[in-house]
Amino acid sequence: MTMAHKSMSQLKRNHFRIKVQLPVEFLIVKYLNQPVEHLKDKQGKGAIHDLGEGGLSFFSTLSLPVDMVIRLRFFLPGTGDYGELCRVVRVRAVGNRWLIAVQFLNMGGKRRELLRQFISQEVKRKVRIVEYM
Predict the structure, then answer these.
(1) Is 77 a member of any domain?
(2) How far is it, in rounded angstroms, from Cα 105 to Cα 48?
(3) CATH code of the domain in which 86 resides
(4) How far is the C-alpha of 54 from the C-alpha of 40, rounded, in Å?
(5) Which residues make Cβ contacts (< 8 Å) with residue 110, sequence separation at least 6?
(6) Which residues span the domain enclosing 80?
(7) How many CA atoms lie within 13 A of 32 on its CB side?
């Protein structure tokens, strides 16, 4: 199968992810070429499970279809608020919740650098914790 024929769920991640537990909110933006105006005011909440430069995964009680575009809102300590446009790339049931993996679609520049710094600081903090155990 060529790269052009692989779905996003079949592609490997390009960025390291760290485990974090932070709240997240999402709004539905679009789904394929189907009208979603009736869903645009729908929002959901969840908890971030892991985070990387290219995306994140979060737990939610709501399932979202692969390829749905959503806007995520979350806060990273020390870096501020994020409102990122994302595409759902993977969804799987975990108990009575859904683990939803998304790819950031337009994060760049300063926000990406702040995210990179946050991830680096979290990795260093966790390494220090392990060293003292």
Answers:
(1) yes
(2) 17
(3) 2.40.10.220
(4) 24
(5) none
(6) 13-131
(7) 4
Domains held by the chain: number: 1
29 with 42: CB under 8 angstroms? no
* Domain presence at residue 3: no
pLDDT in tens, 62-110: 999 999 999 999 999 888 899 999 999 999 999 999 999 999 998 878 8
Query: Which of 60, 63, 69 minimizes the C-alpha distance to 102?
Result: 69
Asked whether residue 32 is domain-assigned, the answer is: yes
Strands 17-31 and 80-94: unpaired
pTM: 0.81
Distance of CA 19 to the CA centre of its chain: 12
- Greatest extent of the chain over all pairs of C-alpha atoms, in Å: 54
First to last CA, the chain: 46
